[in-house]
Each structure stands twice: as structure tokens, then as C-alpha cells.
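Need C-alpha cells for this chain, all 132 residues.
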Amino acid sequence: MILNDGENELSEINVTPFIDVMLVLLIIFMVVTPIVTSSVKVELPKAVSEQKADVNKPLIISINEKNEIYFGTELVNADNIGAAMQEKIGDNKDNVVFFHVDKVVPYEILIATVEHVKKAGYSKIAFSSKAN
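Here are the C-alpha cells for all 132 residues:
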């Protein structure tokens, strides 16, 4: 209990030592972080075996300004898009299907195509855009 001139208790917490400790820790972390994150350059050996060419081949469905639907480079109907996808990639439904759609394509055609793809069992759908 600290008493001042008027014999009243002083109930303030002295935070100066706490601030000093925090500043020292901040300086330590600022100095140590670049040292920890630097890595050693290592030249890795090349693998002898080759991977299959179509292991991670992206599934791309394109709709052009004429409302024509392409799966890869093959022209397909919206109704038979599921069959075309099944024929090319089999039962692997975990692949992401990318849509490249022209900006003048009506929204109804895009949504109908997405619904046909969903009915075929592909639930991972992504829309691509052009970066500026």
C-alpha cells in the first residue's frame, strides 16, 4: 500500500516496466525474423520418371460470343456436355471445371450450362476472368 500526502491509497498500476519488456521483445523479433526466414539455396536433382501428360489437365468449358459451348476444343451441346466430359475424363468428378465465358453471353445460357455440368456430377466450378 502506497500512501501519498493525503493518506489515501494510490491504486494505479505502473505499466512502464511492461512497456519496456514489450519493446525489447519487439526488437528481438524484428532482428531474428529475417535470419529465420532466409533459406539455403539447394539445386534439386531432376526426376527420371515422367508423369502422365493429362494428370492435372484443367477442364475448360468455353462459351463464345455466338453462344457456342466448347469443352476443351470440342464443340458440344449444353444437353450432352455431361456425356462429353464423361467420355474424355471418365469418373473423376473431383476435378475443377473452369468456365471461360465471353462478356456478351446472356446470363441464362451460362447458368443453364453450369446446371448441366452440375447434373453430370461436377460440383467444383470456377469462373475465369481476364487480368488487366
